[in-house]
Structures are given as structure tokens and as C-alpha cells.
Design brief:
The chain is 73% helix and 0% strand. It is built from 5 helices and no strands.
């Protein structure tokens, strides 16, 4: 089991430290998702709001990820 899967399984078991580790590892992805939607929004709420939403979406991706699908987590998290 690789490191990412290990931390995903720890998060599913309730380990907040493992989630923080995944956040730091995928920080660039989370920021790029937030910026993408921030740029698309004409009334542009604060980037901080989009960052919080992106982190929440990332958390849900971690919880719902199933390694048996054959899709890498990085690809799964961006869908």
C-alpha cells in the first residue's frame, strides 16, 4: 500500500493528522481548483471562500475514494 492510500485509509478512520498530511501534499491542486472557480465567477467572492469550498470538496473526495476503481487519487480528486 503506498503512502497516499495509507493516509486516505487513516482519514476514513477519523485521523485528522492524516488529512492535514494529504492537504499539504495536494495543496497546489486545491489552490488551482479554488482559483479556477474564483476566476469564473463574475461577482467573485473572496478567494478564501473558494479555498474553503475546495478543501471541503477534497475532504469528500478522500472519504469517497475507492482504490478498486483503478483511478489514481489525484485524477479522482479533480473530477
Amino acid at each position: 500500500m503506498d503512502e497516499i492510500l495509507y493516509h486516505i485509509n487513516r482519514v476514513k478512520a477519523g485521523d485528522d493528522v492524516a488529512f492535514e498530511h494529504l492537504l499539504s501534499k495536494y495543496n497546489a491542486l486545491i489552490i488551482s481548483m479554488a482559483k479556477k472557480y474564483s476566476d469564473m465567477c463574475a461577482t467573485s467572492p473572496q478567494l478564501d471562500d473558494f479555498l474553503q469550498e475546495a478543501k471541503l470538496a477534497f475532504y469528500h473526495s478522500v472519504l469517497s475514494y475507492d482504490e478498486k476503481t483503478g483511478v489514481t487519487f489525484g485524477a479522482y480528486a479533480t473530477v
